[in-house]
Task: inverse folding
């Protein structure tokens, strides 16, 4: 079988329910598995998906399950591009939201580490948001395991 | 979801073993189980065993930090042990080891905390 160099993609939408967080992690992990990632790379991807989807549910939709979370993923060569978005509340102050340990919902025992984790675990990270319209997070990660192993 | 909690009392120390995945979905359940045990029993110190924890994200960090505050407010200590590599990395990134110790296993954590009793 030849690997498609032109790129492969998928997209999925689901209700903003916390039980769908594990579903989202598994879907992305399964899609990326063709790149033969290491356990660490897979764990990084699952963690950032979990962070982004949790943000959509808690912050985007204030835990209203009528909200819709979208994930799209694209593989180009050895790089995975992920976009995770909601059409919810949006973020008023993006700079503040990205400060480590900052949380707008301390009463929910949030750690305020979500954005910091996404930035650290991925090779590229960008967030765009419009109050009242929603938030979109785009991330990318290059899976290096194969090259490292076989060269 | 695949998450459960196992608890064991050793004198004033509560040992909590976390299983499965600790994400936002599991957080409420894990938090309630632990708080109930902490408030009910004579719990002075808390040890969190992470050996069987397959996945954790920042929601899990929130649960750990919340229990730390609770135990501290009662004058106790908290420790974690047996963290897998990915979980350990997350705990390191969040600066958690500045406020609590990481032990290799339960018995190492226990003997250290029981001395403090």
Result:
């Amino acid at each position: 079988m030849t690997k498609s160099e032109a790129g492969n993609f998928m997209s999925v939408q689901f209700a903003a329910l916390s039980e769908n967080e594990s579903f989202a992690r598994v879907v992305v992990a399964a899609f990326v598995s063709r790149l033969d990632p290491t356990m660490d790379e897979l764990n990084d991807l699952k963690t950032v998906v979990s962070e982004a989807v949790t943000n959509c549910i808690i912050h985007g939709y204030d835990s209203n399950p009528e909200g819709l979370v979208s994930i799209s993923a694209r593989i180009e060569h050895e790089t995975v591009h992920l976009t995770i978005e909601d059409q919810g509340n949006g973020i008023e102050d993006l700079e503040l939201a990205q400060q480590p340990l900052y949380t707008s919902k301390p009463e929910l025992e949030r750690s305020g580490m979500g954005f910091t984790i996404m930035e650290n675990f991925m090779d590229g990270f960008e967030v765009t948001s419009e109050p009242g319209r929603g938030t979109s997070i785009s991330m990318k990660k290059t899976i290096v395991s194969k090259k490292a192993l076989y060269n | 979801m695949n998450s459960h909690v196992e608890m064991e009392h050793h004198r004033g120390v509560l040992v909590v073993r976390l299983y499965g995945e600790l994400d936002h979905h599991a957080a409420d359940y894990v938090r309630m189980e632990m708080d109930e045990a902490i408030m009910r029993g004579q719990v002075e110190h808390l040890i969190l065993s992470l050996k069987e924890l397959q996945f954790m994200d920042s929601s899990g960090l929130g649960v750990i930090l919340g229990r730390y505050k609770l135990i501290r407010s009662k004058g106790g200590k908290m420790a974690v042990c047996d963290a897998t590599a990915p979980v350990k990395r997350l705990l390191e990134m969040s600066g958690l080891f500045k406020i609590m110790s990481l032990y290799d296993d339960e018995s190492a954590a226990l003997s250290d905390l029981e001395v403090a009793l």
Summary: Chain B has a mean pLDDT of 93. Residues 69 and 97 of chain B are 14 Å apart (CA to CA).
